[in-house]
Amino acid sequence: MTNTVYLTQKYRWEVHMQINCRFFFRFWTLAVLGVASSLSTFAIAFTDGFEGATLNPFWTSKAQSGSISLGSTMVYAGSQSLQLQSYYYSGQKDIRLFHTFEQAMYGTFSVMVYDTGADQNSGNYLQFYIKNAADDAAVLWVNDYDWGPSNGGNWYYSVYDEGEVRDTVDGVLGNASSQVDRERRWFNLEIEALADSLTLLVNGTEVYSGAGMTLTEIGMAMTGPDWRPASVSYWDSVSVSVSPVPEGGATLSMLACALFGLLLVARPSK
Q1: Between these two residues, 35 and 96, which has the higher pLDDT value?
Q2: Rounded to an integer, what distance in angstroms lies between the CA atom of residue 127 and that of residue 84?
Q3: What is the pTM of this model?
């Protein structure tokens, strides 16, 4: 009789374990797939060669003392490029195309830009940037003049943490010349912002590498004081590849679910 009771309890325990294990692993699989699906839904892979009749609705535009258009005057690929044009003596110049994400992202942003202000005594600033809600930012830019390699004649970079130039780390300055010479030709600019690293490149050459950064806005701009001359800059072949920053709450929820499942599995049957 004792052996029969023992075997019956053992059988019930094995059945209980099998049921709870199946429940646990199915629940865990669905949870992981759900989170993965949620992240992939919000990942963005976007390219723009500015070949349409109008700007892609992905972009938001600002044209203060200037205008934004699509044209064929200077093209890197395809038949059109983006043209940012400024006006002379009509107020502070701020002409830009940008996109704001609904949440913090990690990823890469790149573009081709033609430096029309190279070797010119007076022009406009060009800025290619990312930034976030904490006022962190990374910018590749050129001055509104080019008086030679040591005076406005190179591409520059600036990295900000909460609005302040990032501190020098291991000799790497947060704001400096890239040593890449300005020329009247196309340049490839790229910013890669990840959890553990921030990398800025000009024509494939790394000009800055430092601590990671999130992004909530990406953009291209031409700016300058009203007394600087009218100018046109050309931008083409934009590429954006970003994914949402993982939320700590989702990770904690998954761990809590896993613990709950383990407790169910371990709970003895009466």
Answers
A1: 96
A2: 12
A3: 0.79
